[in-house]
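Question thread 4412

I'm putting together a teaching handout and wanted feedback from people who do this every day. The idea is simple: show students a protein as raw sequence, then show them the structure tokens that encode its fold, then repeat with a second protein so they can compare. Below is the first pair exactly as I plan to print it.
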Amino acid sequence: MSTTGLGNHGGIRKRIRANHAHPGSKLAVLRLELQLLKQRLCQAMTKEPLEGIIIFSEIMTECQRFSLIENLIEYLNEINYGDFNEQIIALRSLQRHFEMGNLNADDFTFEQAREFMAEHASRIIVIIDSL
């Protein structure tokens, strides 16, 4: 029986290996991106809330484009034994929100923007720190 196309450098074999990789190795790949995300969110939180909303929206749009939040949800689902249910729900809610469109700072009052940043940006930072 021939294994043409499944050699050591075959794309199928690499995908199979990646799909069955230990969850810790997947986190290692995500860790650098997550640390950069955390730094950018921390910077956004130091800005005035309405400016922070704009920066937060840009950051999350970029994360959506590169599937960072989706990959994080997938990772948490793989290692979840009830420990990460709240984080997964929060990330899914945030992901759905950004799939609908970008945030517009004009849609927020100063207080709403402050609360939004405290709730969403802070929660993502806490999730990253918990990994």
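The second pair follows. I'd like the answer to focus on this one:
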Amino acid sequence: SELARDAHVWLTDAEGSTPTAIRLSCHPDPVLVDFGVALCGIHQRLVQRVFLHNESAYKLKVHLDRTINDESSFDFSTELITVSSRDLCELEVFFKPSTEPGMFEEKWNLIVEGVRPFSDVFHVHAQITRANVELSSETVDFGFVPCSGFDLDTIVSIKNVSSRPVRIKARVQNASDGSVQSNVAIVKKDFTLDSDATESFEISLKSSTVIRDIEALICLAVQSPKNCKWITVHAKFRETNLIILCQGREVLHNARSGSFTIDDFYPGEEREILVEFQNNGELEYTIRTYWSHTNHIFDRIHLK
């Protein structure tokens, strides 16, 4: 009763049919008009075509009929259609998806003028499900980040747990006033995710020269602006404040490079040199010390 999603129905002459007393058979009985699974929030009407084949020896006038008291999500044209013998006509059935999930079923009659009606021969069916995705994390915390540093990236996995593909539109906004947060960026802003598929959603934190706390929201509108998932992004931009002293003398103060000279070494002498690292800021450091001449690493220091 369904070929490539289009339903087909054949009317044939029944035994004992005459021009004055037409008798018909309907095949198949019932005729299934199945819209399958649709998602909540789809605004356009879905269309399913029904092809009615008149295999009888007579010209027929047909139309669909139903008895529904309340408002229905299904609709069709009630226009009377003339179908010549050995010809076919096309009927369109419409479905407006509900805003709530559920099963929708109706039974309709096929009326052939001058012939006994085929009662409840059309079985119309649709299922509505809510679009839903799962996030590997709803919070991204970059922690303390040095001003004028490098851009940072992280990944949040998005899995479609719906039975249908979903379209996702993403945007970034400030958590407090709704304005655009320029330090947080996303690569994919509009994409479709197949059922049971997982997408790697990249979030970038752009460098800042200003000391500031970042709290941004990434809105993921799943199929509809009314169905949103949210990712909260936190970061704290801070100035570095590292001081290095050698034997009590400052050789580097919050700079990328510094130098000091010891000019009283004697050949064959061994001496301990006190190097002091002071972290007076909020950023943590991991420092490796080595001689550039031998490229030999001596120690690893972690400063908080």
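Top answer:
Good format. For the second protein you could add a caption like this: The CA atoms of residues 109 and 119 lie 5 Å apart. The domain at 133-238 is CATH 2.60.40.10 (Immunoglobulin-like).
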